[in-house]
Specification:
By secondary structure, chain A is mainly alpha-helical. Chain A has one domain: MetI-like fold. Helices cover about 80% and strands about 0% of the residues of chain A. By secondary structure, chain B is an alpha/beta fold. Chain B has a single domain, classed as P-loop containing nucleotide triphosphate hydrolases (Rossmann fold), CATH 3.40.50. In chain B, about 35% of the residues lie in helices and about 25% in strands. In chain B, strand 9 and strand 10 form a beta hairpin. Chain B is globular, with a radius of gyration of 18 Å. The chains are: A mainly alpha, B alpha/beta. Chain B: InterPro entries: AAA+_ATPase, ABC_transporter-like_ATP-bd, ABC_transporter-like_CS, ABC_transpr_LolD-like, P-loop_NTPase.
């Protein structure tokens, strides 16, 4: 037998033994990413828009609101993720009644998703030409209309692309969540590859993660390009 | 009592924070259906005048009446309502790049209650500016002149009684600028729109304006009626180049 055959045989045996676990881990990762991306869009997007709108010299300057939200986003983003997970343990326990398992672990991923995407949204809105909000204002648009009818359509390709980048960062963050029993593909790679010395299975899992990243990147880029008519 | 003219300023002035005088003691009335040019060098107060008329900047002295309303007394909602009755054409146009020509023109209607929106108004104004065949194009696919025509269509779709234009032709070559000016005159002739054009270009004033207000250092120094004899036959860009640059 050649070395290559050995590797394939080893991988085959591992997959027969661990295949179900791998699929379960992929499902957990999909859950964590899905929920945290939803939080990014539902909470992070309005939060990023709020920072943009309330900044000094913005459309509705509100120094206190801006300072608080801006500070929170900075603090969350500067936490090493593993420490954030530990830091949030009391909050997670209060919300879920436990700190263990995929749903509870997803909570800290949501917090980071909101902060990361919120900051990206703010930066993308800053890149919109100042002429656009000025047109909105002179046409008599309210602040919500300025956001929905002018700023978001103009920034949409960038927002989609940023969500792609955010999802790749979140996939990376999610690998840490095995520490608090969050499961997922990263945890799977560590558990079987590192702790049980199954190098082949670990490399295979990393390859799967790589493929997920490439697919997410390609799909996001495609949608973004399709939306961009500049 | 407020004047019935679309635009009336009485002793209107703007002092910016820091003591800079943007505009001082301006008395100016624009009659319904008139095309008024506003000229002056940079910093003369032309842009301040436009900002005062849209309520972006508040007059710090005197009164400013636009479409029969005292702009200084309007609250935020009142200002928004007034702005929806004014069309503004910008120098840089500022179209939404990811929206088609039609969607850009629809935007002012989208800001209004549903019952006030009309698809015919959009078709009508697109025909008026000659872009009905390009309704599904995106701004990046248009020439500079076509983009400015979209800007004019956007400003006219609500049939405003007052149209404010900020350097509408400064980014265009002479022939294209001429087309844009023709459109502004047609808008007045067809819809009875009162038009105020801020410009530094004397040709613009000569070609379409009925009167011109001369600003210098924040003050209105003169208002002149444009003599019909001053209007010239429009010549093409190349003809003008030959005439002005040729030996």
């Amino acid at each position: 037998m050649t070395g290559q055959d050995d590797i394939l045989a080893s991988l085959g045996a591992s997959l027969v033994a661990r295949g179900d676990d791998l699929i379960e881990a992929l499902g957990e990762t999909a859950y964590m990413l899905g929920v945290s991306l939803a939080a990014a869009v539902v909470i992070g997007l309005p939060l990023g828009a709020a920072v943009y709108l309330t900044r000094p010299g913005g459309i509705v300057p509100q120094r206190i609101v801006w300072s608080i939200v801006n500070f929170l986003i900075n603090v969350i983003r500067s936490f090493p993720f593993l420490l954030l997970v530990v830091f949030l343990v009391p909050v997670t326990r209060a919300v879920y009644g436990t700190t263990f398992g995929t749903p509870a672990a997803t909570f800290s991923l949501c917090v980071v998703a909101v902060a990361v995407y919120g900051r990206l949204v703010e930066q993308i809105l800053r890149e919109v030409s100042p002429g656009i909000p000025r047109v909105a204002q002179t046409l008599g648009a309210t602040v919500p209309q300025t956001v929905w009818r002018f700023l978001l359509p103009e920034a949409l390709p960038g927002l989609v692309y940023a969500l792609t980048s955010a999802s790749i960062s979140l996939l990376s963050y999610s690998t840490v969540l095995g520490v608090v029993g969050g499961g997922g593909i990263g945890d799977f790679a560590l558990r079987y590859g590192y702790q049980e010395y199954d190098d082949v299975l670990m490399y295979f899992t990393i390859l799967v993660i790589l493929i997920i990243v490439l697919v997410v990147q390609a799909v996001g880029q495609r949608i973004s390009v399709r939306l961009d008519h500049r | 009592m407020l004047p019935t003219s679309p635009v009336a300023l009485a002793r209107a002035g703007v002092a910016y924070p820091g003591g800079v005088q943007g505009m001082a003691g301006v008395d100016l009335t624009v009659a319904g259906g008139e095309i008024l040019g506003v000229i002056g060098e940079s910093g003369a107060g032309k842009s301040t005048l436009l900002s005062v008329l849209t309520g972006e900047v508040s007059a710090t002295s005197g009164t400013v009446s636009v479409l029969g309303q005292d702009v200084g007394r309007l609250d935020r909602a009142g200002l928004r309502r007034l702005r929806r009755d004014i069309g503004v054409v910008f120098q840089g146009v500022h179209l939404l790049s990811n929206r088609t020509v039609r969607q850009n023109v629809e935007v002012p209607l989208d800001l209004r209650p549903r019952r006030e929106r009309s698809a015919e108004a959009v078709d009508d104004v697109l025909r008026f500016v000659g872009l009905d065949q390009r309704a599904d194009a995106y701004p990046a696919q248009l020439s500079g002149g076509q983009r400015q025509r979209v800007g004019i269509a956007r400003a006219l779709v609500t049939r405003p009684r007052l149209l404010l234009c900020d350097e509408p032709t400064s980014a265009l070559d002479a022939a294209t600028a001429g087309e844009v000016l023709d459109l502004l005159r047609d808008a007045r002739d067809r819809f009875g729109t009162t038009v105020v054009i801020v410009t530094h270009d004397l040709d613009v004033v000569r070609d379409v304006c009925d009167r011109v207000a001369l600003f210098d250092d924040g003050r209105l120094v003169d208002v002149l009626a444009i003599a019909p004899a001053a209007r010239r036959e429009r010549e093409s860009y190349l003809d003008r180049a030959r005439r002005e640059l040729g030996a």
